[in-house]
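Running this now, will post back.
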Amino acid sequence: MLVLLLGGAALLYGLQSPAANTESVTAPGDPTPPPPAEAVPAGFTALWRAPSPATPVPLVAGAGVVVAEGSRVSGRDATTGAERWSYTRDLPLCTTGVADGRVLALYRNDQYCSELTTLGPDTGERGPTRTLDARPGTRLIGQDPVLATGEDYVETFRSDLVRTAEYGTVRAPEEPGDQPRTGCTFSSFAAARDRAGVLERCPGEATERLSVLRPSGSDGDQPAFDSSAEIGTEGAQLIAVSAERSAVLLPGVPRLALVDRAGRRIGEFPVEAGAQISVPADGVARTSSDEGTRYWWTGGATVALDSSTLEPRWSVPGTSGPGTRYGDRLLVPVPGGLADVDPRTGAVGRTVPVDRGTWTGPVQVRAQGGLLVELRGEEIVVLGPGRPSP
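Update: finished.
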């Protein structure tokens, strides 16, 4: 009888466990890498496309491209679009990302985005998992730490998924009073190595506040900060943080205020932001980067920021996204194609034609070898060198 009871309990657990409601199909071997980027071609043509509403940015990982929709994440051959691996749960996806060379898939369980799984980019093999307390609408940004954003709560975790900091409305605080403020609403987010920036509005304060967490110094739900201070204005956006600075776009005439680690404003620079300034609904500025530069899309222009100082270098107006490095050039989305830009000076050489059909909205693009992965709204379109086609 005892054996039967134990067997029944094991069966019941198996039917109710997450593994019983998961389908994981791994790739049989190593992928074929796409051709390397060489000289910028005369044009780009669409190779394949797929709906991908759960990838907030184009996800290039390993040698492939990641697509996510509904409850399913899949790794595709970059050149052909053929599915190599997939991972599916009986829960809806909240968001996806890439950190430390692994794909992050975050699923919603009840009212929280809590079930985080890591996947190998080339095989889909499952790696470490953990539980988050993130709210729906969250983004996973940064590398070390990864910052899970939210309207009233953020948390950070290391590349090994160990939580390093919590800030805001903590679901189950270890000790009352560990959080320095309550009732605050978060609007903008940015992350850099061992830094996580939050622009927030707190009850009883006259203006917005910039708080920069230092995850390595945090203890449980008691966060440590480099600084936290009101910025003296309303309607600002946090654009980026670096090892020593934060960059905040001020309202009105476009200016970028630079704030040091102690929370002191140390400079203010005019920004050629173009005809329109967008306010990202998820609070994360649209940026890309290379070794020495961050490329920020304002909504009407692409602005190059020095990665260390965050000072503006140059601006290209009339763009549709931040751009991506392609060999020694920068390709920036513009209506009708991609501007071929000198990344050092911002000088535009020519426009490489791309036929995007009826799509006229923002375009986020990442290079995968000699191919380009464009995210147009909720659709991924992979481009290869050749005569443009819709």
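The CA atoms of residues 71 and 121 lie 17 Å apart. More later if anyone needs it.
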